[in-house]
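thread: overnight batch results

M.L. [08:02]
morning all. the overnight job finished for the chain we discussed friday. pasting input first so we're all looking at the same thing
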Amino acid sequence: MSAILDVVAEPSTSRRPLRRDAQLNREKLLAAASELLRERGSSVTLDDIAARAGVGVGTAYRRYSNKAALIDDLYEQGLEELAERSEALLAEPDAWSALAGFLHETTEPFARIPALAAFLASGRRQERTADVRSRLDRTISTLIERAKADGKLRSDFEIGDIGMIHAMIAGVVNTTQNTEPDAWRRYFEIILHGIATHPQARDRA
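M.L. [08:03]
and the structure it wrote out:
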């Protein structure tokens, strides 16, 4: 598991609305964490994140007991946004385009921030994310079944294959990020073409 998740977070269970200034600081910290994780990976510290966010270190530690707690919050926010986006894709009339769009949107962040994929695989914080995970699983399953029903997706494709796609692209990112940071896109297209059943479907990906 990524070192970024080595420390077990013990965040407060309170879900009271934050004051406006506290909410602003939270948003700054989450945005800075996302940037730094993409740039530097798991070596980033909570102090680094606070500096990038322009937030005092004391403020950062009052909000998050450690780096893992912040990553938990970042992941939960991303998972909620992903669920909302995937549900919106159900309105896409072309089943293959909807599924391909979902795969593209999810592959880049998981590939560039492996800690997020590790979090998902670990099952941590399930009590806080169970509902949104269920929503997401239902939507993904619907996107997959629609694409199969249209004859555009391999019949043996399963929801668990998505995690493997993320893992494969993460390997490409780790290998090429210093020399060809966008190389993963080519390999993603190769994978996407491999799971499609018809050239027409692949051409619309």
